[in-house]
């Protein structure tokens, strides 16, 4: 089935279409340059409340989108919307409390703590190809101090600049819409405002911030509440929470998720023998020091089309062609990728001779 027919196929539900498509896509993890984002409204939610995952800046070329539970799995589909057909459908993990909207947003009603976790929005073009993906973490609190809650209008939020940082780089967690009349700011690692998770606090009027138990020496707290993280390590992605105390003794909190990129290193493609007689077999290996990567084989600069004479190992790092035919002669490369980066090996050539 051509990819373009997948989303449009008659007789199959759009959801089946997407799952078919997803299985064709080895590279659904790669997000493109599109700046699609999502936000939670309200930012903090307690058991029994409703939360809306608002989608912003959907790519223009999209014809379908789907919400998934989790970061990577395409099996935990919640709901799909096909704009082309103007229909939506539930996915395998739809709980009956979710509503998907044409504008990309997803409403989740009567949340429970079990709903906590990552939610991922993926958008597809008319050919069923993934255009962009974005994820957001939902933390469902057992309860919220209502006195600490704030109006949705003008509530403080935090943005990470840049949204995702390379290992060793720096990220500024910047406060937007800070309230007036602030007495103090305090930053915590994670979602909870526990004392031993405190990184640092800043009390207005004092000259310098006070560091807390979770201070690593690589954080700088500014007077406006922003937190600069230097030399970010792979261990540091995750959630950061800012607590703001106001002069009326009310407190507000906002959480941000820091993403740390771990770019892949260039893989090496190897071939056991470069010259192989027809009908013998050729074995290619893709060597990559990285874990959690996807591997793709490239033949003469195009994705390798597997035939019945080709066998790939489960992680795709090994490729065997048996028996080799003349049409298999050419240049082979392998490409490894993760959510943040993609690198291609140098080519290896396969020459096929007569017996
Ligand atoms: C999609 O379908 C709904 C009813 O199911 C209808 O109200 C709406 O106008 C349709 N939108 C488009 C763009 O066709
Ligand atoms: C999308 O639609 C929902 C439901 O109608 C609405 O609450 C939400 O504000 C819309 N989102 C955007 C970004 O317009
Ligand atoms: C693949 O592309 C590279 C760079 O564009 C080019 O040098 C090479 O000759 C191409 N190989 C084949 C087999 O087309």
Write up what this structure looks like.
The structure is a single chain. By secondary structure, the chain is mainly beta. It has three domains: 139 residues, Immunoglobulin-like (Sandwich); 106 residues, Immunoglobulins (Immunoglobulin-like), CATH 2.60.40.10; 86 residues, Immunoglobulin-like. It has two helices and 31 strands. The strands form seven sheets. Strands 13-21-20-15-16-17 form a six-stranded mixed beta sheet, with no helix packed on it. Strands 23, 25, 26, 29, 30 and 31 form a six-stranded mixed beta sheet that branches. The protein has a five-stranded antiparallel beta sheet with strand order 6-5-4-9-10, with helices on one face. Strand 18 and strand 19 form a beta hairpin. It starts with a helix and ends with a strand. One 2-acetamido-2-deoxy-beta-D-glucopyranose binds next to strand 29.
- End-to-end distance, in Å? 37 Å
Radius of gyration: 25 Å
Q: What best-fitting shape do the alpha-carbon axes yield?
A: globular
Largest sheet: 6 strands, mixed
* Computed structural class: mainly beta
How much β-strand is present in the residues?
A: 35-45%
Strand order of the largest sheet: 13-21-20-15-16-17
Number of domains: 3
Summarize the structure.
This protein has 355 residues and is mainly beta.
Search tags:
Immunoglobulin-like; 2 helices; 355 residues; 3 domains; binds 2-acetamido-2-deoxy-beta-D-glucopyranose; six-stranded mixed β-sheet; 31 strands; protein tyrosine kinase binding; mainly beta
